[in-house]
Design brief:
47% of the residues lie in helices and 14% in strands. The chain has eleven helices and seven strands. The chain has a five-stranded parallel beta sheet with strand order 2-3-4-1-5, sandwiched between helices. The protein has a two-stranded antiparallel ribbon with strand order 6-7. Helix 7 (174-184) packs across helix 9. The longest helix has 15 residues, at 107-121.
Length: 258
């Protein structure tokens, strides 16, 4: 087990034990989480506007968990480029029929079923990548939104002319980059200068920061170095971070291109 290996490393003074990283914590998103709670408390539509890698998927998972904790029904649909037909609404229709039974075809019947369910138990509708929707799908979604009165969360790369509120997910600040790295290092302080250099290299994009830390760890440039005199986790760099900017961002760049 990792804990046994850590103990051996501490007792023997063996440096460089490769302790596993923790999942990157969600930081710098208090405004978005607060806005989500406001959406769930009312019948508000909110656009979460963000570039790739800003963590909108994780924010939507928080919304899903928060709605589920309130015993609300959550329906999610994802819009795709070049999708034929009303694929997005077909997804929603399938989910609704699995919940309430067979429905008559048409946006109006779907909207009525959503309104009735919302009045009974509460409904959160999540629409991912709404800016990717075809014109046909966008018009159908807008018709559905006009005919419903329920909380709606939408993710998009660009603001859209849809009634409701907008919130842009900003890049992380340098102190938030440090907090994120520390969370991945089991609460240990990042090696001196690491947070500042990753902030410079990534521009504070959360997914890029996470990918960079994982990349440095996998290549043995970032290693666990035991505990300090106060019992705190200690990590060290075995190379110069500034000399590896291309490799540091490789994983993130590949994920964006997929």
């Amino acid at each position: 087990p990792a804990s046994a290996g850590v103990a051996v490393a501490i007792l023997t003074g063996r440096a460089g034990f490769q302790r596993e990283l923790e999942e990157a914590p969600l930081v710098g998103r208090n405004a978005a989480i607060g806005a989500i709670e406001a959406v769930l408390d009312s019948e508000v539509r909110l656009q979460l506007v963000s570039e790739d890698g800003m963590g909108v998927g994780r924010v939507l998972r928080v919304a899903w968990s928060s709605a589920s904790a309130r015993n609300m029904e959550v329906f999610s649909l994802r819009c795709r480029r070049r999708a034929s037909g009303l694929l997005a609404l077909d997804q929603l229709l399938d989910e609704m029929e699995a919940c309430v039974g067979k429905l008559d075809s048409g946006v109006g019947h779907l909207a009525k079923a959503l309104n009735d369910l919302h009045a009974e138990s509460g409904v959160l509708l999540i629409i991912e990548d709404i800016d990717h929707a075809s014109i046909e799908n966008r018009l159908a979604i807008e018709e559905l939104l006009n005919d419903t009165r329920l909380p709606v969360l939408m993710s998009t790369n660009v603001p859209l002319e849809i009634p409701g509120r907008e919130l842009c997910l900003r890049p992380l600040r340098v102190n938030e980059v440090r907090q994120m790295i520390s969370g991945m290092l089991s609460g240990g302080e990042p090696p001196p200068g690491m947070a500042e250099e990753l902030f410079r290299l990534t521009g504070g994009v959360p997914a890029a920061v996470s990918a960079a830390v994982k990349d440095l760890h996998s290549r043995g440039l970032l290693i666990f170095d035991g505990l300090d005199d106060e019992g705190e986790v200690r990590w060290t760099m075995t190379g110069n971070l500034a000399s590896h900017p291309g490799a540091v961002l490789r994983d993130f760049a590949e994920s964006i291109l997929e």
